[in-house]
Amino acid sequence: MSDKGLSRRAMLRTAAGAAAGVGLAGAMSGTAQASWFPGGRRIPQRMISIQLYTLRTLLESDLEGTLEAVADIGYRSVELAGTYGRSAAEFRRLLDRYGLTATSAHVGFDGADVNQLIEDAKTIGYRKAACAWAQYGTLGEWRDFADRLDDAASAFRRAGISYGYHNHDHEYQPIDGVRPIDVIADRTKWYNVHLEYDLYWVVVGGADPVEEYYRRFGRVKQFHVKDRGEDGGWADVGTGDIDWRTLFRRTWPGPMKQYIVEHDAPSDPLTTAKVGYDYLRNLRF
Q1: Fewer Cβ atoms within 10 Å of its own Cβ: the N or the C terminal residue of the chain?
Q2: What span, in angstroms and rounded, lies between the C-alpha atoms of 283 and 41?
Q3: What SS3 state is found at 15?
Q4: Is there a contact between 63 and 94 (Cβ–Cβ < 8 Å)?
C-alpha cells in the first residue's frame, strides 16, 4: 500500500479518537444502558453488516485499505453498492482476502441485463439483492414498475437469489389514497420479492416500523439500521432518537436475518462504521 493509501491502524485510531470527541457519548450511553438488562437478546456477529455506500468516498480513494479497515472493526458481512471499477471476480477476491462476505447488494434491474446481474451475484457470492430506488408520480406508473420488479425478481429467484425492494420515505406518501409501498407489496408475489426496510426512511415517511413489519410479516428480510438525529437528518447508529432496543425486540420473530448499518452522508465514514458496529454488537434487547 502506498504512503497515500489508508493505513488500517491509522484509520482505526482516527475513528476511535473522532468517536470519542463527536457523538460517541450517545452511542456509549445506549450501549451501557443495554448492559443493565443481562440475559437479553444479542444480534449475532454474522447478522451485522454494513452498506458500503456509507464508505464510498474512502472506497473510491483506497478500496483495499478501506475493506481491510472494515474487517478490522469486526464486520464479517457487507452489502455492496457497486464494485468501484473492479470486475465481479476481482471484487470477490478482495472480499476473500479480508475475510468479508457479501451477503447482499443494491443492483438496479430496469434497463439492465438481468442475466448478467445474476452471474455477477453468483461470482461475488451474495444471495440477496435489492432495487435501491424508484419514484413515480402516478399509481399507474407504480403498478407498471411493480410488474417489472416481479418479473426480474422471478428470474433471480430461479437462480437461487432473493431480490427485493429498498424503500425511501416517498413510498409511504399516498397517491390518490394509496401508498406506493402497498402497490409494490400487493402487486408482487411474496415468494419473488422480499422487502429491505430502511428504518430511517420508514420513520421519516410517517409510518411505524413495527406495524409495517407485521403488515408484511415474513417478507422483511433485511433492515437498514440508520439513525435519526435531533434535526431530523442522519445520525450514527445509537446516537439518534430511534428506539432500537424496542424496535428490535418487537420485530425479532420472523425470517429477518440482516441488520445493515448505513449513513448516507457521514462526516467520518470509518467512525460511523465503528460506532454502528459496536452499538449493534453490545445492544441487548
Answers
A1: N
A2: 8
A3: helix
A4: yes
Strand 193-198, strand 162-166: pairing: parallel
pTM above the 0.85 mark? yes
**254-280 tens-digit pLDDT:** 988 899 999 999 999 999 999 999 999
Please name which of 267, 255, 259 lies closest in space to residue 285, comparing C-alpha atoms. 259
Residue 7 per-residue DSSP state? P
Element spanning 160, H or E: none
Closest by Cα among 167, 137, 174 to 149: 167
Q: Are 120 and 88 in contact (CB under 8 A)?
A: yes
CA distance 273 to 54: 8
Paired strand residues for 128: 104, 162
C-alpha distances out from residue 22 to 26, 33, 275, Å: 9, 19, 11
